[in-house]
Amino acid sequence: MRRQPISYSEYEEVWIKVRSHLPRHELHQLFCETFRREDVSQANLTALCKRRGWLTGRTGRFEKGTKPVNKGKTMPFNPNSAATRFKKGQRPHTWRGAGHEAIDPKEGYVWMIVAETNPYTGAPTRRVLKHKWLWEKAHGPIPEGHALKCLDGDKTNCAPSNWEAVPRALLPRLNGRFGRGYDQAPEELKLTILAVAKLEHAARQARRKRRGTKKETAA
User: Fold this and answer.
1) How many angstroms separate the CA atoms of 113 and 130, rounded?
2) Looking at domain 101-218, which of 3.90.75, 3.30.310, 1.10.10, 1.25.40 is its CATH number?
């Protein structure tokens, strides 16, 4: 059976609006005592205030300049809490120092922690890709538009001699949708596949350059 909607007199609504700043449980108790309305629950009264837009004005946040009630107070000593706190100088069990290595389970690259300041957090160590870090130590920054290609297919072999900086546009010719499966190819074919891919990439770049020169001449 469908319940009849709760109705309020005009005077009751004005009375509620004037006192809508009160906490809802106080407003409900006061309303019921004043008007003897046992049929109105706190939920009914709250719903009315929401429909009419009569809000309490409270946001649930500390306003700017408000001081917390416990500011400056010392937390009472609790032996159970004290037993589980970090001691001064103690490190979490997940801490890994410089030299720690781990293999990415998805990509297969080796990550390493080095004793260099983290530019983002200021920490004394930072996490780097080992092959990239070693290659840049040997050859300098990777040229713009280039990426490091693993030559023998073993990404855990991070020696700089096992990686070569190649144009990113060349990578699809090696292992992309129309590539030659470089990483899965026999060791004796890898250098040949890479050389052919480089020639094709260079030829394509030359054609694009010629087309650009013709357009400039025609213009």
Assistant:
1) 9
2) 3.90.75
